[in-house]
Amino acid sequence: MSESLALDVDRIRREARQTMAAGPVADRHGLDTERVISVLNDVVATEVVGWLRSTRHALAARGQDLDRVNRLYEEHADQEMRHAVAVAERIAQLGGRPHFDPATLAQRAHTDYGVPDAAEFRATMEQSLLAGRIAVSTYQEIARWLGDRDPDTRRLIEAVLADEEGTADALAVLLAG
């Protein structure tokens, strides 16, 4: 292994200027940046609606003395709000405006807010698992669509996806037990 490091700072500066002049990453790699921003705004809506649903379910579980379920929903609600903010930050990095308008959140979300009327909490948990599986599937498709054309956004979606998969798995275990 060589002990010396020779950096061509002039070349690095030139390439950095060229990269900056080329515009957002998505544009440089053949993706329509406006379409990426639109898709990401739907992810924001999905995560905010999920945060609302998980927060409501956490409160309902607390009311029924379901401590493990309550903790899972509280943790998931926290994750979903962090996801929404991280995705909104990526939208801003791409030159877009995060769309948090409450009037359209439910229409843009991949999942619905629906809360079962059933008195039994199991129906609520099943509805949550369904919403989680829908989110997992849509995020998998988004990650595939982004591919190598916008690796930063793809990695962000994959991180959100991993959290969603973990929560869906934990919920499935609770339902089975």
From TrEMBL:
Protein name: Ferritin-like domain-containing protein
GO biological process per UniProt: intracellular iron ion homeostasis
SUPFAM superfamilies for this protein: Ferritin-like
Domain Ferritin/DPS: 39-175
Keyword tRNA-binding annotated: no
Domain of life per record: Bacteria
KW Metal-binding (keyword) present: no
MF (Gene Ontology): ferric iron binding; ferroxidase activity; heme binding
GO CC term, one of those recorded: cytosol
InterPro entries (alphabetical): Dps-like, Ferritin-like, Ferritin-like_SF, Ferritin_DPS_dom
Species in which this protein is naturally found: Kitasatospora camelliae
The protein's required cofactors: heme b
Record Pfam families: Ferritin
Keywords linked to the UniProt accession: Iron, Iron storage
Gene3D superfamilies: 1.20.1260.10
